[in-house]
Amino acid sequence: EAQVTQNPRYLITVTGKKLTVTCSQNMNHEYMSWYRQDPGLGLRQIYYSMNVEVTDKGDVPEGYKVSRKEKRNFPLILESPSPNQTSLYFCASTIGTSGNNEQFFGPGTRLTVL
Amino acid sequence: SQQGEEDPQALSIQEGENATMNCSYKTSINNLQWYRQNSGRGLVHLILIRSNEREKHSGRLRVTLDTSKKSSSLLITASRAADTASYFCATGGGMDSSYKLIFGSGTRLLVRP
Fold this sequence. Notes:
The complex is a heterodimer. By secondary structure, chain A is mainly beta. Chain A has strands at residues 4-7, 10-13, 19-25, 31-38, 42-51, 54-57, 65-66, 76-78, 87-94, 104-105, 109-113. The model of chain A has no long low-confidence stretch (mean pLDDT 95). In chain B, 0% of the residues lie in helices and 55% in strands. Chain B has no helices and eleven strands. Chain B is globular, with a radius of gyration of 13 Å. Classes of the chains: A mainly beta, B mainly beta. The A-B interface holds A 4, 33, 35, 40-45, 48, 50, 56, 58-59, 88, 90, 92, 97-108, 110 and B 1-2, 30-31, 33, 40-45, 48, 88, 90, 92-93, 97-106.
């Protein structure tokens, strides 16, 4: 089954404790992206990757890091989480490198930073 | 940056009625997409309409695009309780979004049984 998976689905952590949210897709998509969703603000892009070893900032990259060492994986790293990073996070992937095509979303990771 | 803005923010209708949601955007685009999100879950792609298309259908969904007015509408006909969800438009390939989609803040649709 074609899908995007994220782990963990729920995470409660404390300020400053480094964490990683994993994202994996099995569709051989070139483009992958991370979004955060906050009430009233819709989805905002954090980082995206057009292909292996090619990443770039989205609209809200501060406090986040990403890497793309393999085509299928695109982990999101919070080196020192803060309460304003409490949010619902989605990973997505799409065919091609433009990011303009139909995107396939993961189920989401609900993060709470205390 | 926020490109697409949906209207209304919330919509409540009776089962069987039609639901219409609108999306306006600011810059030129390559395509416009509509997504659906059930509460707290991942978004699901519904339909993509390209800038050279004016109307597109998929089952009970009808999407129109007016590039001169920079607006799009999503019509769901004969709505069902299961259509209750949030609906988002997203624009791609515009001046501000050459390598990404930009999502609006969504319309919350409630279909009452």
